[in-house]
Amino acid sequence: MALSGLDIYKLLPKTNCKECGFPTCLAFAMKLSQKGVELSACPYVSDEAKAALEAASSPPIRLITIGTGENKIVVGNEVVLFRHEKTFYHEPGLVVRVADSWEPGKIAEVVSQVDSYVVERVGMKLTLNGIAVENVSGDATKFVQVVQLVKQKTALPLVLMSANAAAMDAALQIAGPDKPLVYAATPENWQAYADLAKKYACSLAITDSGDLSRLGSLAESVIKAGVADLVLDPGTRNLADSLASLTQLRRLALKKNLRLLGFPILALAGGDDSTLEEQTILATELIAKYAGIVVLGRFDPTGIYPLLAFRQNIYTDPQKPIQVSPGLYKFGEPGEQSPLLITTNFSLTYFTVAGEVEGSGVPSWLVIADSEGMSVLTAWAAGKFDAEKIAKSVKSAGMDDKLGHRKLVIPGYVATLSGEVEEELPGWQILVGPREAVDIPSYLKTVWKAA
Ligand code: SF4
Hints:
By secondary structure, the chain is α/β, with parallel strands linked by helices. The chain has three domains: 5-57, Electron transport complex subunit B, putative Fe-S cluster (3-methyladenine DNA Glycosylase II, Chain A, domain 3), CATH 1.10.15; 64-314, Alpha-Beta Barrel (TIM Barrel); 327-450, Rossmann fold (3-Layer(aba) Sandwich), CATH 3.40.50. The chain has 17 helices and 17 strands. It has helices at 5-11, 25-33, 47-57, 104-116, 140-153, 165-175, 190-200, 212-224, 239-254, 276-288, 301-314, 347-360, 376-381, 387-396, 399-402, 418-424, 440-450, and strands at 64-66, 73-75, 93-99, 118-121, 124-127, 130-134, 158-161, 181-185, 204-207, 230-233, 266-269, 293-296, 327-331, 340-344, 364-369, 407-410, 429-432. It has an eight-stranded parallel sheet, covered by helices on one side. The protein has a three-stranded mixed sheet with strand order 13-15-14, sandwiched between helices. A two-stranded antiparallel ribbon has the order 1-2. It binds iron/sulfur cluster. The site of iron/sulfur cluster (SF4) has 13 residues, from helix 2.
């Protein structure tokens, strides 16, 4: 049962020392009761109080790890229903399903493609996270052969999917040390699957396509059998039912503190007969609300990239813009007559501008001003990208010594600053660049050359 703010307050030191960042112990207790702060922020909690408080302050959704090493999938530990309340912490693992009924050549090709798929966006490498191997054949020998084949092709975490406990046991004998997710315990077979999860120390998915109370009962049975690391599959497969069941699960875990349902959720987004569009739309919904693992029925790069970009957006802390380091960046081999541009250190701004400058083929200098991660217009409105900041950034980049000219291109959105920048940088000519980054190449090839 969750403790109220007053319950928590009674266990705190009550010295109001403020070291936790709150003005009083009561304020800290209230925030802790809303799961808006970690207990470790108070360094003075006694051991007894800590033991009592940890249960209340521990995240309502258990943290689960699948796989080992640098590729492992870590999901759970979420504390809010809506991203704007705080942030979402652990992005869902996107895993691609292969079936043991497929030709080995097809399986090897799909696994290799998933393993090597990487795209770079705003300076971050986006990848897929694992392979789900489904025992469609029901045959233990075939399942084991395919698991072996997949292991030869990738070190990504595995989700082993079989309704045959003997086949699962045989597959775990070779894949168990890699800590795959065992999928899945049902009301009919849960004892055998709980035994396997304990034997191989793996996380266990449980599924029941009935209502959520039955899923809770199944969780209770499996937990009593000694398995602590669970993943829930409510068994819903279409847009409306999935939205309803996953939202209910998240609400029950967060708002009702229902520990039996306080686990990450696994959801299937399409099978062999789904179209790419159906898979992509359902997977998008699942990423937003509230899957921890999304099993994709097919691999197709045209559907994967939007999912990865969407996941990146949803799982970015809204209070911390992604930033690049302020400073001087070079494109090509710029010399003393090369153009000099300036923009802000919001990642999306930087990578958009950098892409266009690079694409222009004109060797250039680009100064990135520290705007605390804001885009050009936002930073200008907030006073973080003004004439003084622009001049300071150009000077600290040492451009006086690097250039044989004194021309600076500022973003078109802050054209109004050109006069003030000229006052801050005496002897410099301030040129107003395009408003949109897409127009930078033609600007550098025409306007800059003529200036
Ligand atoms: S650090 Fe601990 S003792 Fe100090 S004000 Fe915060 S909760 Fe109270």
